[in-house]
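Lab notebook, bench 4. Still working through the backlog of constructs that have no structural model yet. Next entry is a single chain of 242 residues. Request: give me the structure tokens for it.
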Amino acid sequence: MSTSSQFNERPQPLVTAALSAGALVLGIPVAAAALVFEKTDMPNPVLGTKEIKTAPGETATITFNLLSGPQDAVMAGGYISIIASILLVAGIVISRHVSRHNIWGWAVIGPALLDLLGQIGILAYVNIVKSQNPEAKSADEVTFANGKYDTQGKLYTREAWACMMDKFYPDRETWAEKACSDLKIGALMPIPLAICGAAMVGLASFMIWRRGGFGWLIGRRKNVLAYSNQKTGDYIDLQPTD
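Model written out:
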């Protein structure tokens, strides 16, 4: 396809609808599932306390609860995916039907790239925190006495705690089985979120290619500059200025 025909091609509403639907399918269902699994209700026990000096002769007690960082990160990834897909749809519609200025190309590729990078970072973070705070191997490491649990100073993630309670104290902690299952699935959600993020980048790249490729995105091509007529929306090919 020549540059002129590619630039002057009239966008088809059905194609726009299909591209938009694809972006929403990639960005929302998996993200919604991640949010559902990570919003599991469970107790948040105090695992330890520490006194610190706040002023001469004064102290304050800091309490340590379950580590929620991995779950918070996965939920953030879900919200990022949803927002990125909505922005991608807006960019697709505007770049195809409202304005062919290359700034809208960045509105298409930008959210998709940020989403993919964010999901990769979240996936790495979740696995690092989980590896640094693994589940206890036996009930001797988490004992129950006087109405509370003693972890011997160790901290655990919400997922690890739920699965430990299901393994060591299932009769007392009846909530733990479902919570453990949900949180284990939730901890895996960054993988499909990253895959969907990569697919959104592919979709955005396709849009950029249809508009004129990377040359159009940065404002010029190897042999021509694309100039948009603001009145008609048509493109006129100009020779390079240098």
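Notes after review: Confidence is low (pLDDT under 50) at residues 1-8, 221-242. The two ends are 25 Å apart (CA to CA). Flag for follow-up if needed.
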